[in-house]
Amino acid sequence: MKATEPAARGDRADGETLVVRAEMLSRDYVMGGEIVRALSGVSFELRRNEYVAIVGPSGSGKSTLMNILGCLDTPTAGEYWLHGTRVSGMSDAELARVRNREIGFVFQTFNLLPRANALRNVELPLVYAGVPSSERRRRAVAVLDRVQLGDRREHRPNELSGGQRQRVAIARALVTDPALLLADEPTGNLDSKTGEEVLRLFERLHAEGHTIVVVTHDPDIAARTQRRIALRDGVIESDEPTGTAPAAVATAARPGGPGSSASWPAPAGRPA
Ligand SMILES: Nc1ncnc2c1ncn2[C@@H]1O[C@H](COP(=O)(O)OP(=O)(O)OP(=O)(O)O)[C@@H](O)[C@H]1O
Ligand SMILES: [Mg+2]
After folding, report:
1. How far is the CA of 44 from the centre of ligand 1 (A)?
2. Which ligand has the shortest distance to the CA of 35?
């Protein structure tokens, strides 16, 4: 079984690669001597190029699960393998490294640096990854082009519309070419027209081979993904295909999988 070995970069070309294996994940919070069980025995797998919605009422554990998937938090119990690496049980420093390499985050509130322009915001994860500056610049420029913001590179967040800010945040999430793109209510702060633009971008990224998990309260958004995992009181209540045809995937399946597009910057150390 490959799952216990360190992540092999070549694995990504394999259409059967498991991006996520979660086994009986639980997360307890201790609050004033009382234990709040935010997640309780959650198990599922995600394969490469899945597009999944996580839904459920407020307090059901969606963000808690996203934080664990994104290596921002560790489970109290259970096992988590991310892209072939067992991350449950890792130290904070190891988690940070895995997070930087394998995870792209998109938040409801964009979380951009206000004083930095779009280019700098997008470059930042590459700074942490130790990528040389000319290479950083090249990749940030390319990814901003991919989200159609090539003409807004020098703009700071307050000089951009809400939808543009979220696209900068998506570019930042993508610039490391992560195995997994996680978005927690990515359209929650956008009007419906701008939200639609962002959803179309996710659909395009999915068609290009990315693996995407989106937390949403909106049943219409969930219906546009391929699979819906519903949480309630920290457990998976249902985990079903939405019935949305994977048409976009079929038209875009590429032999090399994500990262092989001619316009996509292939990070060093990874087969293009
Ligand atoms: N840091 C924390 N300390 C204590 N309890 C917490 C903490 N974070 C979350 N919880 C509790 O864990 C449960 C799950 O919270 P979580 O934030 O995952 O819910 P959610 O599904 O994301 O809700 P929402 O839709 O409102 O964002 C809730 O009961 C919450 O009160
Ligand atoms: Mg939440």
Report:
1. 20
2. 1
